[in-house]
Amino acid sequence: MPQQQKSQGDEQFPWDFYLFVATSNFGWSLDFFMKSTPNMYLKTQINWLRLNNPDSIEDVQEVYMDQIPFWN
Asked: Each residue of 34-67: pLDDT tens digit?
């Protein structure tokens, strides 16, 4: 049985996993998945995790330069 060779793009990105998550968890269609941006996918993934598993993402307080005592 001949083995199928994967292209380099298939090795770098597991598209089947991303498509599975988008269709099963987010309820997206294939057409919507192909038109979405990586930023939209990531934001949807984060929101889905916050909704279904709140302990999975730890919110970190952002501190800016003008808020530290040595700056003032």
From this structure: 999 999 999 999 999 999 998 888 888 888 877 7
Tell me how far CA of residue 50 lies from CA of 14, 17, 24, 27, in angstroms: 23, 20, 17, 17
- Taking alpha carbons only, the member of 51, 24, 49, 26 closest to residue 36 is 26
**Residue 19 neighbours by CB distance under 10 Å:** 14
Domain ranges (residues) in the chain: 10-45
- Taking the C-alpha atoms of residue 44 and residue 52, their distance in angstroms, rounded to an integer, is 12
User: Are the C-beta atoms of 24 and 30 separated by less than 8 Å?
Assistant: no
Question: Does the predicted TM-score (pTM) go above 0.85?
Answer: no
